[in-house]
């Protein structure tokens, strides 16, 4: 057993070796087109009779109703056997579930049309994970990979009534543990269980093709679940069926698109002639092409290639660069008599290039070029939306993706420790113009890549998912894994295993290179329709250095992670493409109330620590470290929550603006992380319930296509004007220096041109030049970009830490009035009100802006949308500022009508 430090310095076990289980696979082919119908069945579940968990949980071997798609945890919760796994500190008491073997049963009838057909198939879109499936008492298939689509032919095996499908799910821990424990040296895992269900020195997670985060992550709970997590489909056909439809872009520009429709048709046992028809509909639904062919199909799989040309194509663009037009392609075989003989997809026409040119600085660029246009990527990393993925609805995906777009993001990275998202995710991303960096599902640590059976399973999984998703124009990169190369090279994994067992270490590394350097690259080349492949994030695609600032993509965690540098260190780190950096914050009060009583809400209380996964519950110490550096010590839990959000927002703003100001050297900034898997503390900017943290409001400003980056570092403020739009802009830059009471010390104004798709540095101003002798603690500089009387972008620079500024409490005057179909919150303050937070508590209300600094003499109206009436809203309204929080011992002015907060 060996131990090694992670990037954050936590101690985790790391090395495991195993001979991979060879499992019998009856049939598993690529994910096809979605024309089968979900199996209509009555589902139930139970603990497998004889299971050891029955001793402590008697009676669970009787059948109870189950939900499919679903999971054993949610079924147990619905049956009233367990409480809500997200509430309180529930995890320790629920780990037995992951140690049990569970059985699912479906009873179903089959209609006459289906029964009459010559062929039938059951398709399992998601089995989690070690599953033995039988149909009407006879074995059907065995599965060992939750990320794959499993298919089994059931020709002649179905009855009109009383069919029974059974699926036994074996505990992944118990299945894999003996082999992992037998390894003399282990390979790196991720987060060891603190609950005793799995030995800390023999973690099985990286040997299972199951979402890695189910074993616990630093933002989410450990629930080693099982079940039928995606739909089961039954399909039937006679002579032939369509098994795949795709559109390859051969050439594409403004004038002309040359495409090839790739159609895969499976023919039964005898060769036969078939008619094939393909229609192409333009974004308005008008047919622009029809291809008809009479073809001879040979038994088995037939690959057809049908060329299509489109003049003046309407190309798909990321948001901010153009429209998100999509074409529809429909194919039919033999008149489309069964569902299986029809296929349809929606796709966008665009080209993608990952441009990596050597440059004058001695490094190499890293930029996404879409339709020939380099795009600065602005966005965040996405983690799973639930501990139990079947619970994620399309509405939920839309909510968080819409939030991303509303915050002016144009790229999301689907991080590798979860699952391949549902088609709905990519549909919405296509529609919204969000580019997707798609990891393969490897979250960290190391895999048994040296095992050919393991690699074969991954290749099959990759093929399934690339084929399933490749028509989505949003996907612009397939990336092998998250942080595995850097962990091996930089965190000591490689070195320590080499010291312990050089031959095994070499084998592990070669397995890594085979899997991520060769196998997955080949799948993407064969199936990915031209989308580039990148072997790991961060990396330089297997070059010597893995996490380099001069080339490749970068994860930067010296802020927040060890050595926990101050946020200004972000200004000294200038990578080519920042794919991860982050700061934590707690979600708002109403979200915390969902899992902890007010009595439990203590910074170091057990329920709060159970929802703070960083450093096994000690993350609040890291949060306090950052809060104290800039803001001082919070006096209550509520203030701690508020200050965590202010700190997160202001810190990330600094980094993101610096990245943007470094364009074109830097061409991307994706912070960690967009969303949450459950209600708890994390790096997210949108919480589990969809509430925006302060960061998300800031993101809308710092990611806006036009923005001002005024970044003060070591006494100098560097001013860059950012314009991601495709045309240049003329504006006025106004710089005002004020004191906290609104007195203007001086002002200057200049005409500026913001070049298109560029950052233009316009000034470097020393504190002496800006302050001209004024007290730094009492002063602020406001940088405004104006067109006519309209301020199109603004950034405020301070010269002292908030805790040293004379910020008064109770300054903000507010008035809430009804106006048409919404409300207006009128705000003004006689002195600087920093980090104003508007909160309506449990009253459902949406504020159009929040988390901003209210300048003295600059009143602001904020639109509030709510179904609640005016008096309820007025009663619920709370305003909080840094002045209130840091200096509330100062008596507030007597005439302040706004209630003091939290
Ligand atoms: C990143 C990710 C995750 C992790 C996050 C916060 O590096 O890749 O593994 O959750 O950091 O620690």
Structural summary, described in words:
The two termini are 49 Å apart. The protein has a six-stranded antiparallel beta sheet. Among the domains are: 110 residues, Immunoglobulin-like (Sandwich), CATH 2.60.40.10; 95 residues, Immunoglobulin-like, CATH 2.60.40; 68 residues, Immunoglobulins (Immunoglobulin-like, Sandwich). Helix 4 runs parallel beside helix 5 and helix 8 crosses helix 9. A hairpin with a 3-residue loop joins strand 17 and strand 18. The protein has 902 residues and is of the alpha+beta class. The N terminus and C terminus are likely disordered. It contains 17 helices and 48 strands. Bound molecules: beta-D-mannopyranose. The site of beta-D-mannopyranose (BMA) has 12 residues, from loops. Monomer. Homodimer. It catalyses: Hydrolysis of terminal, non-reducing beta-D-mannose residues in beta-D-mannosides.
